[in-house]
Amino acid sequence: MSEKTTFAQEVRDALHHALSSDPSVLVFGLGVPDPKGVFGTTTDLQTIHGEDRVFDMPTSENAMTGIAIGAALGGFKPILTHQRLDFALLSMDQLVNNAAKWHFMFGGKRNVPVTIRMILGRGWGQGPTHSQNLQSWFAHIPGLKVVMPALASDVKSLLLASIFDPNPVIFLEHRWLHNMQTDVSTVMAPAKLGEAKLLSRGDAVTIVSMSYMTIEALHAVSCLKEQGVEIDLIDLRTVSPIDWTKIEKSVEKTGRLLVLDTGFKQVSIAGEIITHIIETSWQHLKSQPVRLTAPNYSESTSPALTQNYHVRADDIVTKVGEIIDKELNCQQLIDQRSSLHDVPGDWFTGPF
Amino acid sequence: MNKLLAQKLSHSMRRIRTVEETIAERYSEQQMRCPTHLSTGQEAVSAAVGEILRKTDLAVSGHRAHAHYLAKGGNLNAMIAEIYGRVTGCARGKGGSMHLIDESVGFMGSTAIVGGTVPVGVGLGYGLKLKGEQNIAVIFLGDAVVETGVFYESINFALLKNLPVLFVCENNQFSVYTPLEQRQSTTLDIYERVAGLGVMTEYGNGNDVVEVYNKTKNMTEKIRSGGGPAFLQFDTFRWREHCGPNYDDDLNYRETSFIEKWRSDEPIARFEKYAIDTGLLKETEIQTNQIEIEAEVNAAFEFAVNSPFPHADEASKHVFAEQHIKG
Ligand SMILES: Cc1ncc(C[n+]2csc(CCOP(=O)(O)OP(=O)(O)O)c2C)c(N)n1
């Protein structure tokens, strides 16, 4: 048995590695040096790297984003952490009007290498303002890269790629991924932002997915495989830019597309991918492309109102059945569930 | 101070504490499935301000709002049911502990984003001024709120328009695990910095309900008579973890001497000792009172757990209003 590590530890390792290898890297955000260390992703970093480079901040998200931009212009590589994406909404002005445009509006004179980590909440009463997956907002803005890791084995290389990318990168970590396990590995292939990853191969349907949805998709894919349905599963990893080549090639082979998205349906990344494929690969499509997303309303607090809110593995299996017009069984996926629908596992007992 | 007021203050503080501690006790049952920020130890500010406010005054708050809601007269059953995610909750289970509302008593809403309701409170104050009924808008805020930009923008507008707005800052000296001095310059205290903006300010011990009462009363009278906005800072101390039912002092983010100092000067015992010593209240009265409060609180929990969950169809409701709700 090889040694295990978690998604959260991998994030921490990436930050530690960046701080160690480049003196211009700074890490700050609410709670960064506190005893919980942002769900274990920043533990001990201040002790190791000092208070000048790793620090807590006032509840001033907009100003601190501008300050990160200024520090970046001055030669640093700041990494700003938000415990929820919802809190970072206060900084949209700095992100959109300054970070995203600096390089463009000054004719390429200077770039802004900031990384903004935002955590995406879900379930267990997070409610309307602690659970928003607004990746499409950021992806809509020219000049921002948007990274959405899914696998614990991927997150470190993706975060390092984000930190050392010359552009502003929005790095979206789903809270339900932090406890995911992976083997400790010594070799690490550096990730390239904009490159998706093929997680399984098959001819039946192309499934394109992101972040936590990829975990549900992996369960669905193995259930489908047992029933003789082979899937091309593409984990996007970055939702801006999108790896169009990989998706187009896969659809060329399968002719069928299902896109999964953690965000609201309306004006979603999923909608963008389907539109793109219709534009580029119409002739290869054997059936209508479809998407499974969160609905067009906010997540409520009461567990009674979140029961059918999120897409789960069995929904994916059912949808694939519809696409290929085949009776498929997903009971096994439902039976496997040991915890309530609003938690990622029994380890999660709230509050965040 | 008179006997009736002493009774009311003691009752209000005990009621808030009993609610908060009952939540803490029952939280591990995993039926209250939402982030919950308790005000145990901070009851004095809410109790005193709540006594002074009229039903027609309006109030808003943030994530730690149970005490503010209750002190303003918010329905207890509806609050507990909301935390339990039931359809009888004050927001029909949609918002949970961090989204309380009882418009029938002027509690206009609490929300979860730090600073989010500050300008909303000022907007309510603008409306009150236009209506000219001498009501005031109260904004409850924590010490971290003065780190947000919107706080200063809101104060500026409240001053510009001379609005009847009272900012009540409960300074429990921590934002989650982070002490004030790691977030703000402490050369000047919060109220001193805010005074520099031109707003009326006052400062006091937030664990001393009499002091809070007197200073708030004085300030609300000035506001009602057209004096413009005011900012009150009351220092206090939260007993339990930032969010959730437990004590977390094992994490050592607050000095033991600091904890002991504040715990030994807790608002209810402090006030009741004074009230008994001065003959305002009797020990037996307090005990009877407590028994009644416990019965009321237990009944509220009974109400909540026996209430139905919202029907699944409600999940998609209320995205848009179908018609104009209220003027
Ligand atoms: C804009 C924003 N940033 C961060 C948070 C996370 N958060 C929730 S409560 C809190 C602390 C607020 O401290 P304070 O205002 O002093 O109130 P207290 O919790 O001490 O009552 C923080 C940082 C948030 N809800 N909103």
Kindly give the count of domains of chain A: 2
Q: What is the molecular shape of chain B?
A: globular
Enumerate the spans of chain B where pLDDT stays under 50 for 5 or more consecutive residues. none
Helix/strand-derived class of chain B? alpha/beta
CATH architecture of the largest domain in chain A: 3-Layer(aba) Sandwich
Largest sheet of chain B: 6 strands, parallel
CATH superfamily of chain B: Thiamin diphosphate (ThDP)-binding fold, Pyr/PP domains
Along the chain, the helix and strand elements of chain B come as HHEHHEHEHEEEHEHEHHH
Listed once per kind, the bound small molecules are: thiamine diphosphate
Helix content of chain B: 40-55%
Number of strands of chain B: 8
The CATH class of the largest domain in chain A is Alpha Beta
**What fraction, in percent, of the residue positions of chain A are helical?**
25-40%
Order of helices and strands of chain A: EHEHHEHEHHHEHEHEEEEHEEHEHEHH
Q: What do these coordinates show?
A:
The complex is a heterodimer of chains A (352) and B (327). Chain A has 352 residues and is of the alpha/beta class. Chain A has helices at residues 7-21, 37-40, 45-49, 61-73, 85-88, 92-99, 102-105, 135-139, 152-163, 211-226, 244-254, 269-281, 313-324, 331-336, and strands at 4-6, 25-29, 54-55, 77-82, 115-120, 145-147, 169-174, 181-183, 197-200, 205-209, 231-235, 238-240, 257-264, 290-294. Chain A folds into two domains: 4-186, Rossmann fold; 197-335, Rossmann fold (3-Layer(aba) Sandwich). By secondary structure, chain B is of the alpha/beta class. Chain B has one domain: Rossmann fold. Chain B has helices at 3-26, 43-52, 66-71, 76-83, 118-131, 149-160, 190-195, 209-227, 256-263, 267-277, 283-306, and strands at residues 58-61, 107-110, 137-142, 165-171, 174-175, 178-179, 200-205, 230-235. In chain B, strands 2-1-3-4-8-7 form a six-stranded parallel sheet, with helices on both faces. A two-stranded antiparallel ribbon of chain B has the order 5-6. The radius of gyration of chain B is 19 Å and the shape is globular. The termini of chain B are far apart. Chains A and B meet through loops of A and loops of B. The structure holds thiamine diphosphate.
